[in-house]
# Entry
Amino acid sequence: MTLSESMTLGVALAADNAGNYVDEIVRQARLVAEAGLGSVWFGQRMDYDSPTLAAIVGREVPELQVGTSAIPVVGRHPLLVSSQAQTAQAATHGRYHLGLALGSALAASAFGVPFDRPITRLREFLTGLRELLETGTADVHGELLTTAPPLPAAVAGAQPRVPVLVAAMGPQALRVTGELADGTLPYLAGPKTLSDHIVPAITRATATAPRVVAFVPGVVTSDIDRIRAKAVEQLAFYEQVPSYRRVIELEGATRAADLAVIGDEETVAAEIERYYDAGATEVVLTTTDLAGESDQHRTWKLLGELAARRRDSNGL
# Structure
């Protein structure tokens, strides 16, 4: 399966109640592959390490592309992230996708560092990271970051060059992302926000067609009212984060859960199609476990069917 075939639709996986987190994620990934999907993604939290998890899953389930979405740049250094990403790329034989984020005051406090000048930090981080991934070394001296390894920094077998995407949604972050990365990873940005704001902004900033990987909370279920109420509770955190609050409001919504795609197969399929129509190149459903394991598998089955239809319609 080629990259264009496998990355059209994907899911983000989590296993919060597992006895062994890694074992459970590998089990889920195998089921996702059996359902006909070609990609899985892992967020970066403060417990597991997402590039390591992606490398393990990609090694254990070779049918899948694997990605992280997203590693905050605050509190991290391009050299260390490059090493992680290249190791994951070598482990998966070219199926790893690196997703980054600006970070937040919450992430900064965990590392005991200031969360200031995030756009400058993002630009300097991406500049150093890009040199490392493309040449195996770097000599970047910025205002906030220096990336100048005295020894070679290339990992043998880390080919092709690791794709870099950024969870950028604001105008300045999208400009930097368009200039220095391969695409963006918007979350809770609905179809209107994508088509009116995000896709035009990143397209203007790049000379090539950018990847727009829309992350959308969603699940196929018959218990719509109960699951919608559960989504309101689980997604409320994002309403307090300015970047997410902005895209929620741009979509004309009042709550993060208003952006969740919840309903039967026909409803979810139609909503996913709206994201493609808005300019998304790929769609990744998150929180597919919101309604329990049975509905999660029902969701994966639908996504596998939709992915197969898109492959057929594109003649792949």
Summary: The radius of gyration is 19 Å. The CA atoms of residues 273 and 283 lie 9 Å apart. The mean pLDDT is 95.
